[in-house]
Design a protein that fits this description.
- The complex is a heterodimer of chains A (153) and B (182).
- With 153 residues, chain A is mainly alpha-helical.
- In chain A, strands 1-2 form a two-stranded antiparallel sheet.
- The termini of chain A are far apart.
- Chain B is mostly helical.
- In chain B, 77% of the residues lie in helices and 0% in strands.
- In chain B, α4 crosses α8.
- Classes of the chains: A mainly alpha (153), B mainly alpha (182).
- Chains A and B meet through β2 and α1 of A and α2, α3, α6 and α9 of B.
Chain lengths: 153, 182
């Protein structure tokens, strides 16, 4: 059983709260206050050691410099802004041709479809070092219409 | 030990060769008073110890910028109060529980707290205090237990003396009602 030390509380008299119980019912371990300073100093040392290990940018986000709610607010605005205001990725195909292709085929051509189509059509290549895939890649990179490429090959 | 005045302690911290020594003197002078102030807010001894240490860490960080606009004692009490309230807020957020339930949990913890030695009447009294809104609870504790003058309380809590008197009056009425009904 711990030996305990009681804190003496001031008494009141002649007030409306006179009937309230007197005395402090809370206790602390006997040596608590005697050892407090030593434990506090140890905690300060641990904190300083942790601070020395912290990355260089961490103080920038310290609560006193930039409160957490500001950081999270800015992050939220940036994310929402990115989602709503970014330009959707535009294919290099003119819209009219793209629509026509969709109507004709029911799906969007991709590079592998074109290569397959070329293989089926037995296209001869004069230079054996150049494959059909190379040709299609080259044409796509040169912004030729996918519709035209598919038509040709 | 020869006790320094607050003004001397601040001067020693600023101008002395060893600010850590001056800080330790401040800790020695105020640790008990701040402990009991915090204890009445967070109730559990272990939580009080944690909040008291946090309070002094904040004090160490802020002391170089302490301008002395208010008394050191008032300033320390304000930091301790804010830290204690922040601790309760963290408990509420950590477990996603409403404020009233935090107070109920604290009241429940009195039953099993090895560092609570009050009789049944004192336990009921503490539960009655815990049924008050947080600010009113702090006002009641400071006035009733610490017998702190309203003027000093007003400086610590940044509230007018009139508002504090009204708050204390309402707190007493509520506690009386609680004690009658339970």
């Amino acid at each position: 059983m711990h030996e305990q030390k009681k804190y003496s509380m001031n008494s009141h008299s002649g007030n409306e709260w006179e009937n309230f119980p007197k005395g402090n019912p809370f206790e602390v371990p006997e040596t608590y206050f005697d050892t407090f300073s030593a434990r506090l100093n140890k905690r300060m040392e641990q904190r300083n050691a942790a601070r020395n290990k912290a990355p260089w940018w961490e103080p920038l986000f310290a609560p006193r410099l930039v409160p957490a709610w500001i950081v999270s607010g800015i992050a939220t605005v940036l994310v929402i802004g990115f989602i709503f205001f970014r330009k959707p990725a535009q294919p290099d195909i003119p819209l009219a041709v793209f629509s026509e292709s969709i109507e004709m085929t029911g799906y969007y051509f991709d590079e592998s479809d074109l290569v397959l189509a070329m293989e089926e059509k037995d296209i001869s290549v004069s230079d054996p070092g150049i494959s059909r895939r190379d040709i299609v890649n080259y044409l796509i990179n040169e912004n030729y219409s996918i519709h035209d490429i598919a038509e040709t090959y | 030990m020869n006790e320094y005045s607050d003004r001397e302690l601040i001067q020693l911290f600023r101008e002395g060769d060893n600010p850590h020594y001056a800080f330790n003197l401040i800790v020695e002078k105020y640790k008990e008073r701040l402990y009991w102030h915090i204890r009445k807010i967070v109730i559990r001894h272990e939580d009080t110890d944690d909040v008291l240490q946090e309070t002094f860490l904040k004090v160490w960080d802020a002391l170089p910028g302490f301008r002395g606009d208010s008394a050191l004692f008032t300033w320390l009490y304000r930091i301790a109060t804010n830290e204690a309230l922040a601790h309760l807020r963290k408990s509420r957020n950590r477990f996603f529980i409403p404020w009233a339930d935090v107070e109920r949990q604290l009241a429940g913890s009195l039953e099993s707290d090895p560092w609570f030695s009050g009789n049944e009447l004192q336990k009921k009294f503490q539960k009655a205090i815990l049924s008050l809104p947080e600010k009113q609870r702090i006002v009641f504790n400071m006035r009733y237990f610490d017998e702190m003058p309203y003027e000093q309380m007003a400086e610590i809590l940044k509230t007018s003396e009139g508002a504090l008197k009204a708050s204390f009056h309402h707190a007493v009425k509520k506690i009386e009602k609680y004690m009658e009904e339970h």
